[in-house]
Amino acid sequence: MGRVSDRSSTLAGILCGMAAGALWGLVFLAPELARAFSPLELTIGRYVSYGLISIILIAPRWRTLARRLRRREWLALAWLAVAGNTLYYILLSSAVQIGGIAMTSLVIGFLPVAVTIIGSRDRNAVSLSRLAPSLLLCAAGALCIGWQALALPATGTVGAQLTGLLCAIGALLSWTAFAVGNSRCLARLDHISAHDWSLLIGVVTGAQSLILIPVALVLDVPQHHAAAWAQFAAVSIGVALFASVVGNALWNRASRLLPLTLVGQMILFETLFALIYGFVWEQRWPTMLEAAAFGLVVLSLLSCFGAHRKPVGDRARAVA
Prior knowledge:
This protein is mainly α. The protein has one domain (2-319). It is built from 15 helices and no strands. It has helices at residues 2-24, 30-33, 39-58, 62-68, 71-99, 101-108, 111-119, 128-151, 158-188, 194-219, 226-257, 260-266, 268-282, 288-307, 312-319. The protein starts with a helix and ends with a helix.
């Protein structure tokens, strides 16, 4: 019975991770859909919307949840909101607008490697030796995308490309810290549901975004026509609802059901779907290198799933 339960939990976690990746892939398109607005404005629009939606959804349970939160949880919510949302999205949007989707996808594609390596240090985690084939395939897929990006004509100066790269690396580090910290918070907070934890992060992120509004006004007084504002609002609300509210809830569910070494590999679905959306947006088929990257990423996922399957001997001992 335990084996069936473990398998169903793993399958549910994988499906949640896959669905979260499909929704998160949309964030790579958002800076292109609302290019007239700066990364800071896009961040404010997305997370103010996320905060408002979270407040509405969590309001009926707010008093009960607030009593369960101690100072430690509020501090965790504050830094997770910065690392996984506010700072991450500013850096990601900047990287996409300055360096392009391909280069950004390449760097973010190394997220699974970083998270999985950190997760391998956890107690009872799958060893790095068993995860090595999956990590190498993941890195090879990311390098294929990088080679493709280098082969394309440069869209800006060397300085701009370097700035975009640094923003992408910053986004990588920021979200790696979030993925690890969030997974460990969920592991110890069994009295708070994964969905409520996601909404709490949304409330805190919305509050942080309000603080950024005066900063955005000082840096640049927005002067856009009505149609641009309507598009901005639609993109902000759409990304907040699907990527932040629904996507984050699915991700938290996956983080609770799967070990960190497998959760890290789930991030590959974001890269896969971001590339698919990019092809649709650009109205083209993938190149040979991009197709190879797809294949390598899929093989990386399959290899990681295989590494997390218990050997026959372990299953026999579990049954006994």
